[in-house]
Structures are given as C-alpha cells and as structure tokens.
Specification:
By secondary structure, the chain is mostly helical. The protein contains 17 helices and three strands. Strands 1-3-2 form a three-stranded mixed beta sheet, with helices on both faces.
C-alpha cells in the first residue's frame, strides 16, 4: 500500500499539476491520479515505477510513513503579495522532505537543547539586544557566523535546493522547536538578513503575542521583524558611529564586508538613525539602481550554510558521506540526495580560528559537536 499524499508531496516540490504529471506517463488519466492521491485507488507495480522515475525517488518512497506536517504558520511565513500558492506549497514540501530526513538522522546523535526564548511583549530592538547577550556578543561586534551561532542555540535550520524570487526564507515553531528554512541561490548578505528577520518572527511573534499587540498579519509584523534584524546585525550605537558623515557607495561597501549586511540595508539604517537625510538616501538608492546593483551588489559577504544536517549524515554514513546508502535509506534518487546535502556546510566551510574566544560562541572548533551513536544497518 502506498500513501497517495507522497505523490502530491513530490508534485508540489516540482511545482507540477496533476495534469502535467499525467502528460508524462503514458496511459495515466488525471481522474485516476486524483483517486490515487486521495488513497481511493492503488497504482500497479508498473505505474508505481513510472511515477518514481518521473518524481525522482525510489518506488519505496511512496509507502513511507510521513511525519506530522511541518507548517509555516502565519505570521511567520513571509508571504509577499507576488508569492503564488504553488510557490508557497513547493517551499513547504521541500522543507517537509528535509525535515523528515533530519528527524531520521537524529537517531544517530542527540539534539542540541533549545535555548532560544520567546519574548512576547518585548520591543524588536530590546529583543535583539537580549539575543546578542545570549550569543555572547557585545554591541561592538559583528555577528561572525550567524547560522552556526543559531544552531548552537538549538534552532533547526533547513536549507533546500529550491529557488523562488518571491521568497528567501520562512520560519515556524514546530511545537517547542524553532525552525528556519532557507531557499537556495542567495548571496551571503541576503542569507544573513533573511535569517535574522525570521529569527525576529520566532522570538517576537506567536499567535498569543500577535493578538495582544493587535498587529495585522502583514506589514506591521514584517516591520517588527526588520527592526529586530537591523538591531541584531547592526547595533544602533556602534553602526551610527561607524557611518561616515556623507556615506558613498564605496564607503558603504567597506562597511558591508565588515558587518555582513547589504549596502541597501546600511542606507536604510543610516536614514533610521538620522545619519543621512531623506534626499541623501534617495540619491544613494538611485545610484544603486543605475549601476544594476538591486539584486547583486559588490562587496564580499561569505555565503553561510547550516551545518547540523550534514554533521549528522557524516556520523551516520561516514565522512565523506556514502551518498548512495544515504539516498537508499531515504528512498531518494542519488541526484536528490546530492542536491539536498549540498545545501549544508562541510567542516571545512566553517570558520576555524574565531575572534570571540571569550564568548559563549567558541569558534576554536569549527564543527557542531554531537554525541555519536553507531549507525543502524537497514
């Protein structure tokens, strides 16, 4: 017996309608596929094999038990006006697939305790300053490696091989577990800002806090998350002093490299802190647009990747990972397995000798330490 929702899940990942899948499989009708997905009918062995090939998995995948749905609950989902329902569904299904694999990998190690607080009633800036204290940072320090720091607080960071211009990331509390999901293909500064923004949602916005604040589920929530991200990444006191009196794109590009945020974010921050006036901000934005920098700016910010998923896979399947075995035990194709694993950092991708040895974040070791358990043979 298969679970027809597994077919729907894979269609969602590939943004395929039922009819588009039917068109790729000779003899299959949309009405029959609909019945199969609703568990009102079962495919024969030949059809099951064809579905597996088209959807990039092994046939066994369709009979695997699913975990409870990982859902990005409003207000945490950054649903922009141009985000289509199919794009949203695809991102959620990718996250679900990765979360299921992570849950299986956790049998080979112990999870990191969650140390991320909810701060209902706090101001965005106040909450950001408190999170900085928890991370062991003072107000003068850039956040050196944000994803690694959050994973050490017990935040689950998923990264998926899916790109959509209307969405960078989303987040949710899965019970008591904070989860952030990142989409692929983003430059380093956008990754850091998106993660900080989603962290703001996790810290500030659950259903109770939203109701208490009488905030809408749109712009007001996004503004609060943006304010949190700005204070977390660029604390107001130090960044105001670091700004030149008349910033240029060149001077802002230098600050970008130091603080790991975009030039556009620095312009917005300078305006918020009244370092520059509105006319100067507009002039700088126009210069960015005229140079074609709206999507990709100059100034190097390393691309960060989460680590815990690959670390657990290395514990279970060796380093380098035996991708064939990893894929087989997930009932994935090897192509799918490589695509997912490539979203996560190897130990060599992480910082070695860190700057902040005296803080709660110790970068002298560049891996997340997880207790090792012997792999289970299946």
């Amino acid at each position: 017996m298969i679970d027809g929702q597994r077919i729907a899940q894979l269609r969602g990942i590939r943004k395929m309608t039922q009819q588009q899948l039917v068109d790729r499989i000779p003899g299959l009708r949309q009405s029959r596929l609909s019945r199969i997905e609703k568990n009102l009918a079962q495919p024969n062995e030949e059809l099951l094999a064809l579905l597996a090939v088209e959807l990039g998995v092994l046939a066994d995948f369709f009979s695997r038990n699913a975990l409870p749905t990982l859902a990005a609950h409003s207000p945490q989902f950054r649903a922009r006006s141009r985000l289509t329902a199919s794009s949203r569904a695809s991102a959620l299904q990718w996250a679900q697939l990765s979360y299921e694999a992570l849950s299986e990998l956790r049998t080979f190690g112990s999870s990191i305790p969650v140390c991320l607080p909810k701060m209902n009633g706090a101001t965005p800036a106040g909450a950001a300053r408190e999170i900085r204290k928890i991370l062991g940072l003072n107000t003068t320090q850039p956040v050196p490696y944000l994803l690694l720091a959050l994973e050490r607080l017990g935040v689950t960071v998923l990264a998926v091989p899916y790109d959509d211009n209307a969405l960078d990331a989303f987040s949710a509390w899965q019970g008591t577990e904070p989860v952030i999901c990142l989409l692929g293909g983003r430059p380093g500064d956008r990754i850091r800002y998106s993660v900080a923004h989603e962290l703001g949602h996790l810290v500030l916005h659950d259903e109770a806090s939203v109701a208490a604040k009488s905030l809408s589920r749109g712009k007001d929530l996004e503004d609060e998350a943006d304010a949190f991200a700005a204070e977390l990444l660029t604390p107001s006191g130090v960044i105001a002093r670091a700004m030149p009196s008349r910033p240029t794109l060149s001077s802002l590009a230098m600050l970008k490299t130091q603080w790991g945020v975009s030039i556009k974010s620095l312009i917005r921050r300078a305006r918020e802190l009244e370092v520059i006036d509105q006319d100067r901000a507009i002039s700088l934005y126009k210069q960015i647009s005229s140079r074609g920098w709206n999507r990709f700016e100059p100034g190097h910010v390393p691309v960060e990747k989460p680590r815990a998923f690959r670390k657990l896979a290395e514990i279970a399947y060796g380093d380098p990972i035996n991708v064939g075995l990893f894929a087989k035990q997930r009932a994935w194709s090897e192509e799918l397995a490589y695509g997912v694993l490539d979203q996560y950092a190897r130990a060599s991708d992480l910082p070695f000798d860190g700057t902040y040895h005296g803080s709660l974040i110790d970068f002298r070791e560049n891996v997340i330490q997880l207790p090792v358990r012997r792999p289970k043979q299946r």
